[in-house]
Specification:
By secondary structure, this protein is mainly α. It has helices spanning about 5-15, 20-35, 50-70, 100-115, 120-150, 150-160, 180-210; strands at about 40, 45. It is built from seven helices and two strands, in the order ααββααααα. It holds the Pfam family PEMT.
Amino acid sequence: MALQEELKTQGDFLFRYRSYLPFCILPLFILVILTSETYLYCDGVYNTSLVIAAIFVGLLGQGVRIWVAGFVPRDTSGRNTREQKASVLNHTGLYSVCRNPLYLGNFLMMLAPIILLGNWLFIVVFALSFWLYYERIIFAEESFLRVKFGQEYIDWTLKTPPFFPKLSGYIPSDMDFSFRSMIRREYNSFFGLTSSLFVFHYIIAVIVNWQRGGV
């Protein structure tokens, strides 16, 4: 199988199971706590700044997803996991500055609980792992969109970066913001963000307390 077909096959597979990535991170998260210093409790002092940073990054990611969800056209992939679909090519709003704003939001939201560790090496490892995971999904999606929309899609990619936003290219959406669409699409992600921050914080506290002999 040629490399392009292999990447697309992997991307289609990962696309269907992309919601499970956080569960893959949890064992590594626990391993890092057990084998390295945890800066949330540094020398017995609670590091409030790490918590604030984690919440800020998480809410920033959630804000990106809310912005996208409020303006998203019908019949696009969104939370769909079975197959690629898109009835229109969305190139306004956040899609005018970044081709994958939902994945940018995902990255920030998944990064948030990892920040609680204060372990910069693990943050770098997570960022690289996220990119290796999602680049295949993006490749599969872009293969679909290239076939679906042809030159219109190619023209859009030439002026819009895949991940890191180019704010100077922002084009306002021609749709009204839909609170109904936003809530319907994003209540799960908000619950996931809040619960992951709570669970990861709790795990750190329990393990640190255990390492100190229950003090």
